[in-house]
């Protein structure tokens, strides 16, 4: 699209199939419009019946943060207490909720290129946590942080390896093309680098592609995917001093499972209203 991108993401299981169609317009943030808008449509795989139509933006925000929360549970140090959030949009809010669910967070730092948006997010985050402060730079936010969630729309690195402490865990979420990245090549080369999908990472991940093109690391530097970490086939970290990175590109299957969970919850809700198309 002229000012962004249009994505269509299909996936299916034995019982349900689904497709997410979204627009991604980074410039919308400047005019206070959603950066991501779209729909998820869920179908019965056996009969073909349409089951549900869901708002893609809210579903994406929740399932993306849930994946980062899962990665953090398995990759961050058990005593990780300081959280840095880079970005102040919808993903910042859901990532805060996810991090609070998996670690005993005692300090939260927030940075955004818009000081106004960072301040507004910090004020809203105060309802979830008493220790929230804004930082003047991304470097100040991540310095000595135990967990970093990078959820910006920046096409160039906002995180430098020199600012990251040994033992930190980073969830890199914002960039999702081969020409954009939030982390510099030195961070990728230094880290235990885990992705949500090996195929997607080699095809779409700018952090990996540019680190390889710069000679910082080889394409084989990827330690594995998150499924392998969760099932124990790949270690999430090898020591408390190791820097770990989870790169999230987003999977269509995540949307289908999340949409199924919403649909099943609606089936059990006595107040739900059903519409026949």
Fold topology:
Blueprint: E1 5-12, E2 16-24, E3 36-44, E4 50-55, H1 56-75, E5 82-86, H2 90-102, E6 107-111, H3 115-125, E7 132-134, H4 138-142, E8 147-150, E9 169-172, H5 185-190, E10 192-195, H6 198-204, H7 206-213, E11 222-225, H8 226-230, E12 244-247, H9 252-267
Parallel strand pairs: 5-6, 5-8, 6-7, 8-9, 9-12, 10-11, 10-12
Antiparallel strand pairs: 1-2, 2-3, 3-4
Number of helices: 9
Give the CATH class of the largest domain: Alpha Beta
Strand content: 15-25%
Which whole number gives the mean pLDDT? 95
**Rg, Å, rounded:** 19 Å
Q: Count of DSSP E strands?
A: 12
Q: Kindly, what is the distance between the CA atoms of the first and last residues, rounded to a whole number of angstroms?
A: 30 Å
Q: Low-confidence segments, ≥5 residues, pLDDT <50?
A: none
| Overall number of domains | 2
Shape: globular
For this structure, the CATH topology of the largest domain is: Rossmann fold
What is the annotated CATH architecture of the largest domain? 3-Layer(aba) Sandwich
User: Structural class, from secondary structure content?
Assistant: alpha/beta
Largest sheet: 8 strands, parallel
SSE order in H/E notation?
Answer: EEEEHEHEHEHEEHEHHEHEH
Task: Give the full name of the CATH homologous superfamily of the largest domain.
Answer: NAD(P)-binding Rossmann-like Domain
């Amino acid at each position: 699209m002229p000012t962004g991108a249009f994505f269509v993401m299909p996936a299916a299981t034995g019982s349900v199939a689904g497709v997410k169609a979204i627009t991604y317009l980074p410039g919308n943030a400047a005019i206070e419009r959603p950066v991501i808008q779209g729909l998820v449509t869920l179908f019965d795989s056996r009969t073909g019946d349409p089951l549900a139509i869901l708002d893609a933006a809210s579903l994406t925000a929740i399932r993306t943060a849930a994946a980062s929360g899962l990665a953090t549970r398995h990759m961050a140090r058990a005593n990780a207490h300081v959280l840095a959030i880079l970005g102040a949009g919808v993903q910042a809010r859901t990532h805060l909720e996810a991090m609070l669910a998996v670690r005993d967070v005692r300090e939260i730092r927030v940075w955004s290129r818009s000081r106004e948006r960072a301040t507004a997010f910090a004020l809203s985050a105060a309802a979830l946590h008493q220790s929230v402060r804004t930082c003047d730079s991304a470097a100040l936010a991540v310095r000595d942080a135990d967990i970093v969630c990078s959820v910006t729309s920046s096409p160039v690195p906002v995180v430098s390896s020199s600012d990251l402490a040994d033992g930190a865990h980073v969830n890199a979420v914002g960039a999702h093309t081969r020409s954009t990245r939030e982390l510099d090549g030195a961070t990728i080369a230094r880290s235990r680098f885990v992705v949500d999908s090996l195929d997607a990472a080699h095809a779409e991940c700018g952090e990996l592609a540019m680190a390889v093109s710069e000679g910082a690391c080889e394409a084989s530097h990827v330690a594995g995917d998150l499924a392998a970490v969760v099932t124990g086939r790949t270690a999430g970290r090898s020591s408390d001093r190791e820097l770990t990175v989870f790169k999230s590109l987003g999977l269509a299957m995540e949307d289908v499972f999340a949409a199924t969970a919403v649909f099943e919850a609606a089936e059990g809700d006595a107040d739900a209203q059903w519409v026949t198309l």
